[in-house]
Amino acid sequence: MKFSMEGVVIHLLFCFLFFHKICAAELDIISDSQFLTDGDTLVSQTRIFELGFFRPNNSENRYLGMWFKNISVRTVVWVANRDHPLPATPQLVVKITDSGALGIFNNISIIWSSNTTSSQKATAKLLDTGNLVVTDELFGTIIWQSFDYPTDTLLPGMKLGKDYSRGMEWHLSSWKSSQDPARGAFAWQADTLGYPYFELKDTGVVKHRGGPWRNERFSGISIGRMILTFVIDVVIIDTEVSYSYYIENSTSILSKLTMNSSGVLESMVWVEEIKKWQTFLSFPRDTCDTYNVCGAYGRCTIVNLVEKSCACLDQYRFVPKDDDFSGGCVRRTPLDCKNGSEGFIKYSNIKLPDTKRTWFNTSMSLENCAEKCLQNCSCMAYADTQIRGEGTGCLIWFNDLIDIKVLVPVGGRDIFVRIASSEIGSSSDPAGASDLPSDPTAAKKNDGSKIKIILLTVFPGILLIGFSILLLWYARMKKNNAVQKNANFIELL
Ligand SMILES: *[C@@H]1O[C@H](CO)[C@@H](O)[C@H](O)[C@H]1NC(C)=O
Ligand SMILES: *[C@@H]1O[C@H](CO)[C@@H](O)[C@H](O)[C@H]1NC(C)=O
Ligand SMILES: *[C@@H]1O[C@H](CO)[C@@H](O)[C@H](O)[C@H]1NC(C)=O
Ligand SMILES: *[C@@H]1O[C@H](CO)[C@@H](O)[C@H](O)[C@H]1NC(C)=O
Ligand SMILES: *[C@@H]1O[C@H](CO)[C@@H](O)[C@H](O)[C@H]1NC(C)=O
Ligand SMILES: *[C@@H]1O[C@H](CO)[C@@H](O)[C@H](O)[C@H]1NC(C)=O
Ligand SMILES: *[C@@H]1O[C@H](CO)[C@@H](O)[C@H](O)[C@H]1NC(C)=O
Ligand SMILES: *[C@@H]1O[C@H](CO)[C@@H](O)[C@H](O)[C@H]1NC(C)=O
Ligand SMILES: *[C@@H]1O[C@H](CO)[C@@H](O)[C@H](O)[C@H]1NC(C)=O
């Protein structure tokens, strides 16, 4: 639509004088003189997001929601009144209330409002990030933002986790169905009891666990014709534990992470050429992602791409409790915790065990970590946290190690498990890695002469690569050794 300048002025004047409503073309702000009715929308400055009322599948229910403005597939990323659907009539208005909150009104009363402390003069603005922000204009402070109330979708720059200073928790919860934004059964939620990680819950029960968080930067991820760099930003401080992501140098790439209504977490990028959302990773990925499927000190491996197999962490130093692994494994020689009677065996390429009962310090060295572990008889294993890079930080497990997955052919992290000295080097595998898909080359990442594989972990806890890519790489690797030298990978933990 093209307006002449004069036309626009007259239009605006008309709107202002007679309706005080948003009838100018594409405003991004609601203030005490501008409000939003049924048919109107707010549009962010560079036309990335749009906010307004929508009716899923032309149902009778209306919701105030936000979607991407400029793509052909209507994709709702946030819903204000997901648990309070509004009937088709009467007319609704979104405006700033007398107390400075953002509210939805019908002809009689207020139906939904942002939960804000009162403010004399507030405005609501839709930003290009997809954040709807209510600002106190007198103090210039943000008093409410939609990013604090995620529905099923994480956008770049949005956080999941906990804000201890405000007593808030950010998590994703699925829609009830693809046509019903009401809170569904599935949630993707941070567990921060020990070292932080994600849990995928089905009606409150933990079904799957993501790996421990770490900061990462993954370049060279190709989606459609785009080559993207994903950056994971983890914050672990006294007042906040949070996880967010963004795509480097790409204001024009649209991406999202959605807990979908069938219980799968999908990470997607919009590919304009095919006018589709392309899922480039999803979680859970296979049966080894089922929580604690092999018991304590058991490890789960995927065979034939679908079937899982359980085994003890290491066949020399652990023995299964039962034939079917239902009870997991135990150390062949129990720990007795006398000075010098124990050491550590390193296991590589694994998804680190559940960190619910752990202690950590993100700045300690790995050497001090080993020492710290030996000093406490309840310590069963240690690893680096990788918040400040590989080999830094200290993560200590006090309980039996559960929910260990083996990542093949490469990927995963290293863990150092406490073992009786008599068992170290006593077996037929002096390398120590035993019957894990041991890969001494992958373990020595700094050795320039060895194969260098860049492991890309976009989302800890999520299998990052499509099987196809993995298989392609695997096939290529077998065929041509040179190819693997610069193989770029996304690792799925
Ligand atoms: C959406 O509407 C179409 C036609 O109106 C119907 O066939 C379809 O089943 C609906 N989808 C859902 C999920 O209700
Ligand atoms: C909207 O999308 C089209 C097609 O991708 C693009 O050509 C156009 O520049 C976009 N407009 C804006 C304002 O982003
Ligand atoms: C509000 O709207 C509803 C539905 O259109 C109507 O039934 C009701 O009478 C209206 N109430 C007032 C006070 O206008
Ligand atoms: C608003 O906050 C109050 C007190 O913190 C709480 O009881 C209420 O449920 C909140 N309402 C919404 C819509 O979040
Ligand atoms: C990408 O952004 C980083 C900083 O975020 C900058 O240093 C770098 O030069 C940018 N690269 C390109 C290709 O624009
Ligand atoms: C959820 O994601 C999975 C995996 O990408 C997909 O097969 C399924 O159709 C999705 N469900 C919905 C409701 O979009
Ligand atoms: C363990 O032994 C080492 C060397 O023998 C000694 O330096 C250290 O103090 C001992 N630690 C404890 C807790 O006994
Ligand atoms: C973490 O480790 C660092 C370095 O060893 C130390 O200075 C710091 O006090 C430790 N913090 C906690 C909370 O233990
Ligand atoms: C060992 O760790 C446990 C769990 O954090 C703790 O309760 C206990 O006090 C520690 N023991 C020593 C000797 O530090």
TrEMBL record:
Residues 337-420 form the Apple domain. This is S-locus glycoprotein domain-containing protein. Residues 27-147 form the Bulb-type lectin domain. Pfam families: B_lectin, PAN_2, S_locus_glycop. InterPro entries: Bulb-type_lectin_dom, Bulb-type_lectin_dom_sf, Pan_app, S_locus_glycoprot_dom, SLSG/EP1. Residues 425-445 are annotated as: Disordered. The chain crosses the membrane at residues 453-475. PROSITE patterns: BULB_LECTIN, PAN. SMART domains: B_lectin, PAN_AP. Keywords: Disulfide bond, Glycoprotein, Membrane, Signal, Transmembrane, Transmembrane helix. One of its GO terms (biological process) is recognition of pollen. Involved in sporophytic self-incompatibility system (the inability of flowering plants to achieve self-fertilization). Residues 1-24 form the signal peptide. PANTHER family: APPLE DOMAIN-CONTAINING PROTEIN, BULB-TYPE LECTIN DOMAIN-CONTAINING PROTEIN.
